[in-house]
């Protein structure tokens, strides 16, 4: 079949309509964009100069109509995320309310080459021209994108150089131990008259309360509930507390007067993403940088307790998808009582028989899997366990100064005492300390030792000090008050309590003193104290 003859037809261009003529001669709706990167006084003045310049320039052109001056103050040009005025201008362009944008230079428009090209192309697609005064470029003209890319790359390079200089300056400041404080969201400190951190008394009380309650055994959620009940505001001034906010306070070394510099770092000057510094950058630890709210011993105890709670043994229970190792602040024995046979924690249970309820503790493995995993773990009555544990604490405390001090504080907090009772407690604790030192000194005495003279002198001093304290204690014993209040106050006499009166079980006290309690049989437990002391105790 023969090929058809090729035909070329001429199509004349469209004749301009009255609407086209109208658009050609109508006023252009023009906006201006200016930006200053810092909020320093000279930069603010620069911003005001730019605003005045563009207002006069646009109003002086008869074919231009001023829409608005858009200006971002104190904002970096490496990202458009926080440039509210810039984003508002783009939205107005999309709505067809702006025909042209005037800006000083490409670096004022954007220091990020990718962002710069992205918005230039977007505006070009909707027929919005961007005029860069310094470079004399109209983005809508052919070939403009090449020059914009070149100048944009130069602007980005400048930002990277500035970022490198700032990074170097911060590194030098860190080496010299210069610590910066963000007081706005930091509870407990404010900027003093000398420019250094000073303690805010009321806020410091909140910090101390948080640390005290945590060491007393409260969980994060329990402390949060108590803070919210007291209407205590967060560091950011909010009513609701979060786990993260509380945990940050409990782990922040600045509360003991130190500071770690470079905890986080910025990945690059374009994305400005922050990452936790896990060794990618150098860190600096500055000791005694400012006044401490929490002493070092307390801070150290809190960190140990955090590590202990997070390291609780996990147990897979029937009906659960994951292993459980969650800290419980309700009952101390939930985390301390373990099975001597399989090492699994015990769980608190309620037995009901004949309408009577009894609280007992049972091995979780035995409860969930029967004798398959744990053959002989006994069921322990709660009352019997409590009596045995407190009896052990009372016995051991008589030979341990630290435990005696802990008991003293615990009893003094639960009983109202006057100065005389407090003094009796101090005397009895001091006598215990003297007896300990006396025994150690005696063990150091040896035949033909030149140090014997020094030791004998110290023994003499201890005997004199002990006699003096015993005489002072005897004076208090002469007073025999028979009133009811006097009988209550007599409870504070620590040695009498330890020797003659059983102490009531207290979860906070048990947590402070014990590492764990091992159930060895129905009639015997092993109580392990925090200092490593182990006591076999009948139940």
Short description:
The protein is of the alpha+beta class and 539 residues long. 46% of the residues lie in helices and 17% in strands.
**Could you list the spans in which at least 5 consecutive residues all have pLDDT below 50?**
316-324, 413-417, 480-493
According to CATH, the homologous superfamily of the domain at 23-162 is: Resolvase, N-terminal catalytic domain
Average residue-wise pLDDT: 76
Overall 3D form: elongated
Number of helical segments with 4 or more residues:
19
How are the strands ordered across the major sheet?
Answer: 2-1-3-4-5
> What is the CATH C level class of the domain at 23-162, in words?
Alpha Beta
Q: Could you please say which CATH topology of the domain at 23-162 applies here?
A: Rossmann fold
Structural class: alpha+beta
Number of strands: 20
Give the oligomer, counting copies of the same chain as homo and different chains as hetero. single chain
Biggest sheet overview: 5 strands, mixed
What descriptors fit this protein?
539 residues; alpha+beta; Rossmann fold; Hect, E3 ligase catalytic domain fold; five-stranded mixed β-sheet; four-stranded mixed β-sheet; 19 helices; 46% helix
